[in-house]
Batch of 3 targets.
Target 1
Amino acid sequence: MHVVVNAATSADGKLSTRRREQIKISGADDFARVDRVRADSDAVLVGVGTVLADDPHLTVDDADYRDERQSDGREPHPARVVADSRARTPTDARILDDAATTYVLVSESAPADRVSALEKTGGTVVTAGDTRVSFPEAFAELEARGIDRLMVEGGGEVIFSLFEDELVDELSVYVGSVVLGGRDAPTLADGDGFVESFPTLDLRDVERIDDGVLLTYDVV
Ligand SMILES: NC(=O)C1=CN([C@@H]2O[C@H](COP(=O)(O)OP(=O)(O)OC[C@H]3O[C@@H](n4cnc5c(N)ncnc54)[C@H](O)[C@@H]3O)[C@@H](O)[C@H]2O)C=CC1
Ligand SMILES: Nc1nc(O)c(N)c(N[C@@H]2O[C@H](COP(=O)(O)O)[C@@H](O)[C@H]2O)n1
């Protein structure tokens, strides 16, 4: 599976403010680029922290891209995936509507009543890992279901875990011209942090978009 991480940060590396509310860092041209990356993907993944904070829909906005996908024999939207160890996704979350297939990755520790509530709303539950979602295991299952190209939109906890598991192939960071600050504000890669064996990136491209900069890296 080819895994592409895409996120927008402030100039000081934050994904959002200390209140963890959704904040627009990208401008119109960058959101249009993100829509293209979604349209080119088989699935788009976020963590449940992002679902609880942003209630994202994760669908393709541009009708031409949806038509293009359908003329290639694909669904109009990529599948949506939420990493949700304890099945905390609200049943009325936008990610669970019937616009696209939604996979909910849970761990063995997820309460059975929450799992069945998510299944009743139409979510396809994939169990991988004891107390936390095991991405290597879950991704093998997604691959078996035809997901070869996965876009990851965040947040910081999930992005860190994917680097830790050495599952990231490409990283695109849009750096907006704003400072958010806050020691508790989420950053691009949170988790426990690395103290050695840091992931190494190969800078492939630098592009000015809107009033910010898009940095595109291959993971070495
Ligand atoms: N600017 C941007 O591009 C984006 C910003 N955000 C912001 O990021 C914040 C949310 O990020 P986070 O709080 O870091 O949450 P997150 O979206 O990374 O979700 C973390 C949760 O995922 C679950 N999870 C399951 N398996 C896991 C694993 N193996 N490793 C790590 N987590 C796992 C856990 O329940 C964990 O609490 C919000 O403020 C949101 O607005 C989110 C996405 C993109
Ligand atoms: N690329 C990008 N730029 C920003 O400024 C952002 N705030 C985000 N956030 C991500 O976009 C998701 C919203 O998706 P929908 O529009 O609801 O489909 C949000 O959940 C973050 O993953 N991204």
Target 2
Amino acid sequence: MEGQSRTKVVLLACGSFNPVTNMHLRMFELARDHLEDTGQYRVVKGIISPVGDGYKKKGLIEACHRLEMARLATENSDWIIVDSWESLQPEWVETNKVVRHHYDELAAEQNDDDVDTVKYSKKRRINKQVYCFEGSSHQKRRGCPQLMLLCGADVLESFGQPNLWKQEDINEIVSFYGLVCVTRSGSDPHKFIQQSDTLWKYRRNIHIVHEWVTNEISATHVRRALRRSQSVRYLLPDTVVHHQAEEVMGWGCELKTNQTHFKN
Ligand SMILES: Nc1ncnc2c1ncn2[C@@H]1O[C@H](COP(=O)(O)OP(=O)(O)OP(=O)(O)O)[C@@H](O)[C@H]1O
Ligand SMILES: NC(=O)c1ccc[n+]([C@@H]2O[C@H](COP(=O)(O)O)[C@@H](O)[C@H]2O)c1
Ligand SMILES: [Zn+2]
């Protein structure tokens, strides 16, 4: 399929990024290779959206630090950016609402691009196909890139945790947007999809990316190492490691080690 006829895709990763690790960045590269290898997609952008402070997860440091570290981590990438919208919301925002927000942004950018050639109102009329499903209706904008949620297999499996995700949100994510899921040790996304009627129904919208270089990098491990004054070098981009060191010095922290604001 020629480049022009491929569907443009924007990948959106939501999470704590507490702190961002090399594996978060690898996740984007793996997903892009996988989607482009199908011959159907061209991945044009990746967005990291750190969760807001309202998420109140134990040990979550302030969003401004998580954002700054994610920005430093992506400064050498020509396609992955960090977006602050979610982290600036006063309350925790459910992921489906974050996805909707970004889809609306992409559609608005698309309309801006089109506005010179076709009158806005007319374009709006011809540019939308209405997709309806359980209780809500959405408009898919022609020409707008497809937005897919990018996550690790642990997040996919968290769909099965009672009272954590609304069923309608899961439906909307997998039926309207699409999901790219990177395998992670301890998870079996194929089995999980096979056992869920909803996920099975929309299995063609769920792209499982197999990470062959299995590794167990996690922000939990990084925080633990930092608490113990152990090196986190090569688990995080150097710029992020340095940012933390500067932070400690800047705060006149009582600790003379590389221990940082990760207290839990
Ligand atoms: N090693 C990994 N392999 C696959 N996916 C990963 C990996 N590390 C993180 N992710 C994914 O990155 C996204 C953001 O995750 P998150 O910020 O929770 O990182 P984490 O390393 O899991 O942190 P924590 O240990 O604090 O939960 C999630 O979709 C998560 O599944
Ligand atoms: N119902 C929901 O929309 C829902 C539930 C749980 C987690 N999440 C999101 O999943 C991500 C999980 O991140 P952590 O693995 O760091 O907890 C966060 O972005 C969080 O907002 C969403
Ligand atoms: Zn996690």
Target 3
Amino acid sequence: MRVDVVSIFPEYFAPLDLSLIGRARANGVLQLAVHDLRTWTHDVHRTVDDTPYGGGPGMVMRPEPWGEALDALAPAEAPPPRLLVPSPAGAPFTQAMAYELAAESHLLFACGRYEGIDQRVLAHAATRMPVTEVSLGDYVLFGGEVAVLVMLEAVTRLLPGVLGNAGSLDEESHAHGLLEAPIYTKPPSWRGHDVPDVLRSGDHGKIARWRREEGLLRTAARRPDLLAALPADRLDKRDIAA
Ligand SMILES: Nc1cc(-c2cccs2)n[nH]1
């Protein structure tokens, strides 16, 4: 997968040389390039923002540098990338979207700052590539960079060969729309707290049922919205009896 990121703070992405993302880049699973938006400015001050039409606080990111950046990174003669723009006004980023993005061959992230990017940048981009404004949650960040780091981690870990134990993807929270069950390791008893006996029983069927029931109970207690969103066929009668 190819990923391009455009930001006025490219140094925000230094952490992407570390850990599993760093390894994915080293072994070619992920080709990542971070670009400074000011590359596409031409004035002595390398200006990327201006005052908002209609008045109001703050500044708006000018369309011209973004237009030239997207022209350079999504050339007309190549298959178009998917443009992702973090925004408080975006569609919620979910594990389902992470899987969707992991199937793309080229992602292009635009990191907004200030009050945001002139809307015409997205409107023009949408004439030649898929554009998705994405929200990480109902809170406001200084800029899109942190959101892109989160999305890149969530997507990269789904790419083939990135996670050593790909099986863990199948059991983790949100893998099947539910929260995962509690997990334990040695010692069997610690400060008066014991590991549930079933997990030490060696009965894999019982263990699988316990984990499913515990995941359902957690989901019902902490995220009833996820339970309500489950397709009817995902909850069988044994679950309801639990
Ligand atoms: N979910 C979310 C995204 C954002 C921002 C993206 C770009 C500037 S602020 N805040 N909150």
